């Protein structure tokens, strides 16, 4: 951590807004298995954005006050509801560790977002990343990537329990991410002749419950159930490795097959839903090479792979229209190339 030399008196009285940004993410493959130390691939969804702005409010550094204005709540942060407990804890820690040594007082927080909440697109991690960056900017502190990750994980573990760390990484990077718990992070450019269509079911995902239910299958007293769940987790890890090879070679049809099998495996782990299944079926019938849920499942979003070898991207529009006709509330396009 690098801290600029700041006169505490001047720093405490300075004015202006200090901002931090992050973006949404999509898990291409590896959700749920990544919790159990298998690899996953995530892609940045740069068309969605999270921004946090911090402004000094003049409260004394010995007893700083914090306010927040966001979709869920507006007012004193101490009075915020339980679904903001991760933000409360994160602000308390950042204030103590970054701001208090500089003699800084309290601040007002304004959060704006185009990332839909509870859709498996990393909104909670993006809030944390943007807020960490804004408060660090306010404090005049330069944080290393690992420090941003560590602070984000504090928030994510409160929000989701045993967070894998994938969202914390993916919402902070603008390249594709290969992530495996306990292993070195790898980022890479995607240069593949295809586009992912992302579609929102309009139903809130249930990441925490889905993760708990998969864990319950793995540790079931019924040995057959536990063995099958373990095989499914292992297979998702293998499919992720195969997907990386397909991406590097630009083999879109093979990638489509992999996504379809991953969806079948996730369904066997009980984390799909009727709404997801309906959109996935519609995309396949409209000509997508493959389709699956993305994120925790039980609602949220799905992805469909469409090749770019169609003049005028007619097929892309056909699949997108089919998704909307099947009930998709919103869609996004995520090119797999620069």
TrEMBL record:
SUPFAM superfamilies: GHMP Kinase, C-terminal domain, Ribosomal protein S5 domain 2-like
GO molecular function: ATP binding; mevalonate kinase activity
GO BP term, pick one: isopentenyl diphosphate biosynthetic process, mevalonate pathway
Segments forming domain GHMP kinase C-terminal: 252-320
Entry GO CC: cytosol
One Pfam family cited in the UniProt record for this chain: GHMP_kinases_C
Gene3D superfamilies assigned: 3.30.230.10, GHMP kinase, C-terminal domain
Protein keywords: ATP-binding, Cytoplasm, Kinase, Lipid biosynthesis, Lipid metabolism, Magnesium, Nucleotide-binding, Transferase
InterPro entries found in the cross-reference section: GHMP_kinase_C_dom, GHMP_kinase_C_sf, GHMP_kinase_N_dom, Mev_gal_kin, Ribosomal_Su5_D2-typ_SF, Ribsml_uS5_D2-typ_fold_subgr
Keyword Hydrolase belongs to the record: no
Pathway: Isoprenoid biosynthesis; isopentenyl diphosphate biosynthesis via mevalonate pathway; isopentenyl diphosphate from (R)-mevalonate: step 1/3
Lipid biosynthesis is among the record's keywords: yes
All residue ranges annotated as the GHMP kinase N-terminal domain in the record: 98-172
Matching NCBIfam families: mevalon_kin (TIGR00549)
Protein name per the record: Mevalonate kinase
């Amino acid at each position: 951590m690098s801290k600029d030399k700041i006169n505490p008196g001047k720093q405490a009285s300075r004015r202006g807004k200090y901002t931090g940004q992050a973006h949404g993410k999509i898990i291409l493959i590896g959700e749920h298995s990544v919790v159990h130390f298998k690899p996953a691939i995530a892609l940045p969804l740069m068309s969605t954005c999270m921004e946090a702005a911090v402004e000094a409010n003049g409260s004394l550094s010995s007893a700083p006050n914090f306010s927040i204005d966001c979709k869920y709540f507006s007012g004193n942060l101490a009075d915020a509801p339980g679904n903001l407990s991760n933000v409360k804890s994160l602000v308390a820690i950042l204030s103590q560790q970054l701001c208090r040594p500089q003699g800084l007082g309290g601040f007002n927080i304004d959060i704006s977002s185009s990332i839909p909440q509870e859709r498996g697109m990393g909104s909670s991690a993006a809030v944390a990343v943007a807020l960490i960056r804004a408060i660090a900017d306010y404090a005049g502190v330069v944080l290393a990537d690992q420090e941003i990750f560590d602070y984000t994980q504090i928030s994510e573990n409160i929000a989701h329990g045993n967070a894998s760390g994938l969202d914390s990484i993916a919402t902070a990077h603008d390249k594709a991410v290969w992530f495996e718990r306990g292993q070195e992070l790898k980022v890479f450019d995607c240069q593949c002749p295809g586009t992912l269509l992302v579609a929102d079911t309009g139903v809130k995902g249930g990441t925490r419950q889905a993760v708990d239910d998969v864990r319950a299958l793995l540790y079931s007293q019924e040995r057959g159930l536990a063995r099958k769940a373990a095989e499914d987790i292992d297979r998702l890890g293998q499919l992720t490795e195969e997907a990386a090879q397909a991406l590097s070679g630009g083999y879109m049809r093979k990638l489509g097959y992999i996504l379809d099998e991953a969806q079948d495996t996730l369904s066997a782990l009980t984390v799909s839903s009727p709404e997801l299944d309906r959109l996935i079926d519609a995309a396949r019938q409209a000509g997508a090479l493959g389709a699956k849920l993305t994120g925790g499942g039980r609602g949220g979003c799905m992805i469909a792979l469409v090749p770019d070898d169609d003049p005028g991207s007619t097929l892309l529009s056909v699949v997108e229209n089919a998704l909307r006709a099947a009930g998709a509330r919103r869609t996004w396009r995520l090119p797999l190339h620069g």
